[in-house]
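Board work, copied verbatim: CRAL-TRIO domain-containing protein
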Amino acid sequence: MTADHDAATLTTAAPAARVKSSASTLTEIGYPHCHFGHLTPTEEEAFVRFKTVLVERGLVKPGPPASHDDPLLLRYLRARRWHVEDAFQQFKDTEDWRVANDIEVLYSTIELDAYEQSRRLYPQWTGRRDRRGIPLYVFEIRTLDNKSVAEYDKVGATTTFSKAKSDGKTPSGLLRLFALYENLTRFNMPFCTQLQDREFPEVPITMSTNIVDVSGVGLKQFWNLKDHMQVASQLATAHYPETLDRIFVIGAPFFFSTVWGWIKRWFDPITVSKIFILGSHEVKSTLESFIEPRNIPKKYGGQLDYRFGQLAIPDEGWKDIVVWENGHTTFPTGPLLWEEIEDGKRMACVALGAKDGKPRNERVCTIPKAFSVPVIEIEVKTNGVTTETETEEVAEGTQTADSNTRDDGVQTDDTLLSDEVQEKLKINGEDKGKSIETAPVPAQTAAA
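↓ predict structure ↓
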């Protein structure tokens, strides 16, 4: 029996036909439900209560400018299945963690060499999006071998790669990884939100679609990576909830059912339901149901000449939108963020980070501001007096040089099954509130 045949048998319980594209089908449980513009009255009421709690307890300043934008806050509520107190606890833990590890300083001062080392090891943006405008990432696991991880951790532990302090609890090597999450939420998602050539352009982009290539990875390599991947997944899930839309696992070897048995224990069933293990005969048709062929790498049956490790390939659709500056023709490596210019009519991409200790602060390009996120009004009590907050519109993820407004979001969603994380986030085994998705769990079924 061949490896391809064995990999294909993993999905016999869930053929590609069950992976429905929400790009063209608005179902009762699929995207964009549970996102702004498509909230039910019950969900919107829960969000108002959640935001009110955050403001009254001093974790969020409503502004203007607001300290956190509404799409960011909504991620925590979705992750906690609309349970306000659970969402509050996770948000508070994240804010404490961010302060303890100077995440803002880390992102703005990280050495470009350190950032690039992380970028080449972990999921990378292709420069393209799926049919709904969600950014498409690719991750080739074989590059993350035992030697590269050991070197990565060693460099992180023995060098000063930013001006940020650390809580001493989060592995310093992994802190560089979170600069990539910041890039996802502070640069990529706001950029994709402004691109209106997508289905549901009224919905701010807050998630990512991922192709995970496990071809060429042996059981020993999976085993050696287990602890590293588990710690990274736990931290990401706890502090960057709800930016995962789908993961398509490609090239699964015959023993992958064993590996899947480890992995699925790190996530709850809702997260597991977003992971699809594809046999070789399913890859092209399934990816095309979510992604236009021109945006799928050639390696996976598409038309995009993309190889793992390179920087994002600009989309032809950007030509009339992106105005490049300072010699740039694509987005460079390193920390990037957006700030409003021209009285909020346009947005500028600014490159941060440092090279040999010298800060980089350079404009990369500008784009028209085509989308604003409406801020939902709440009433808060100050000294027993109820006041109404002002309604403002802010671009998702926008940060100005003299403002504290930021968008810190995520990778993966919902809770882990780790006892430690459950205790920290005060999660019990009960299903509190409404589940955000009840899609079938093909990978879990196949691995059982």
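The two ends are 20 Å apart (CA to CA).
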